[in-house]
Write a structure and sequence with these properties.
65% helix; disordered N terminus; 2 domains
């Protein structure tokens, strides 16, 4: 008989697996972290970070206008102290390229939107032109049909008049004389 696995063991293992699957955060070289953020990023304790600040291994600064005096640690100092791997830094060229591509993409998107708007206006103008041409065509067809019917009636009457005339050879042959 097999012993069922306790359900409490599986959920405890899953978050650890999920954390291992998440990519490590990457920081810009000019980024700075608080003591607790630095501890979380490096896996060291806050006390270790404090000791490193105290012994001068990590430099700190405060932001202008920060009335609370929150100490910030440059990410590059964490790398230099060996607490954070160099792969945690985003390449500046990569950052610039990403920003440049973002600007280029925005410019292309704007050009695409403008072109779509222009095409929509042109399409509407062409549709109006086609509608006008269809109306003209309908008038020409109606006029042609009117003239065709008028000519048919006129020819029919002319033929009847000619046949009714005694001088017409068909009238003499059929015996129709006026």
């Amino acid at each position: 008989m097999s012993v069922p696995t306790q359900p409490s063991q599986q959920p405890a293992q899953q978050p650890a697996q999920q954390l291992a699957q998440q990519p490590a955060p990457r920081y810009r070289p000019d980024a700075a972290l608080t003591k607790s953020e630095a501890a979380q990023a490096t896996g060291a304790s806050v006390d270790t970070i404090k000791r490193r600040i105290k012994d001068g291994t990590l430099a700190t600064f405060t932001r202008d206008g920060d009335n609370r005096g929150t100490l910030l640690i440059p990410v590059t100092d964490l790398v230099a102290a060996g607490l954070l791997g160099a792969d945690a830094l985003v390449d500046v060229a990569e950052t610039v390229a990403t920003a440049k591509h973002g600007r280029e993409a925005a410019a292309l998107q704007h050009a695409t939107d403008t072109a779509r708007q222009e095409l929509a206006v042109r399409a509407a103008a062409l549709e109006a032109q086609v509608a006008g041409l269809e109306q003209q065509l309908a008038l020409v067809i109606a006029d042609r049909d009117f003239h065709r019917d008028s000519h048919r009636d006129l020819l029919s009457r002319l033929l009847e008049t000619q046949l009714a005339s005694p001088a017409h050879p068909l009238a003499a042959a059929t015996g129709k004389a006026a």
